[in-house]
Amino acid sequence: SGSLRVKTFLRNDVLLRITRDGGFTNLTHLRALVLELSADDMAKIIGARLERSEDFMEYMEGTASTQTSRRAAVNLFLPECMEIGRDYRSGYVWLYRVSMDASGFINPRNILSIAEEAVLKQTRVIHSGREKGRAPAGHLLSGTVCADAYREVSKRRLVDTLFAEYPWLRASIERFRFNNASPGGFKPTLDDIAALQKLEGVELPNLVEELVECGFLRRVAPQRFEIGSIYQQALAVVS
Question: For a Cys staple, 121 with which of 44, 88, 145, 188, CB 3.0–4.6 Å?
Fold first, then answer.
């Protein structure tokens, strides 16, 4: 006999679509609800997964650190820092930032997918015997495998989330691919989007509204936008 476990992730974009207008049966009292996770919540999610591993917990106990919190476990699991352009961020901060779509909400599904993919890639590096991609002392994952994992999950989410749930937007989203002309990153204006999409008049604001609503674009200024982090690598853009 075996056992079954159900893994459920609650997504803000889906919940807002359901509750925005008339709600639905047995949830008619809700019109708007936001499920907002904090960075500490993210540490709890990853830490809970790590605690299931006896090998990891033994390794944790054998470290010189006197900290046994989930945050300490996550810091041991992830790289000490990730190089992003000219900035250096801890692996912890990097992971929750790149997991977000344009809504700006921490996404546990993306976080765990990137972490799990990084573990697979790190295991392959260890078994290969090569030095490139090895984790530094005191950490289990290297920045190299984390970056590669992010790239893989970015490609998946573009297809299994955006293209699967908003197929009518696929052609419009594809037109943003490979746009890295600005040295400060790709943050298109309304005029840039109009030129990319070859649209004018009422069609342009309608399209932009849909791209914002689906979590692809985020408004960073009245006339300027950026692409959600989780989709950037898939489209080879940098914001």
Answer: 145
Residue range 114-133, pLDDT digits in tens:
999 999 999 999 999 888 88
Rounded CA-CA distance 170/182 in Å is 24
> Cα separation of 222 and 84, whole Å?
26
pTM of the complete model:
0.79
pLDDT digits (tens, 9 = 90+) for 162-215: 999 999 999 999 999 886 655 456 889 999 999 999 987 789 999 999 999 999
Residue 165 sits at the vertex; the CA angle it makes with 213 and 220, to the nearest 5 degrees, is 25
Q: What whole-number distance in Å separates Cα of residue 132 and Cα of residue 145? A: 10
Distance CA 96, CA 41 (A): 10
pLDDT in tens, 52-104: 888 888 777 766 554 557 778 888 889 988 876 556 788 888 998 899 999 88
Q: Which two tokens stand for residue 123?
A: 């295991």
For 79-88, the CB contacts below 8 A with 24+ separation are 79/135, 79/136, 79/139, 79/141, 79/142, 79/143, 79/146, 80/136, 80/138, 80/139, 81/143, 82/143, 82/146, 82/147, 83/143, 85/185, 85/238
Strand partners of residue 156? none
Q: How far is CA 38 from CA 8, 18, 56, 98, 145, in A?
A: 18, 23, 24, 14, 25
Q: What CA–CA distance (Å, rounded) separates 155 from 153?
A: 5
Residue carrying structure tokens 């260890």: 126
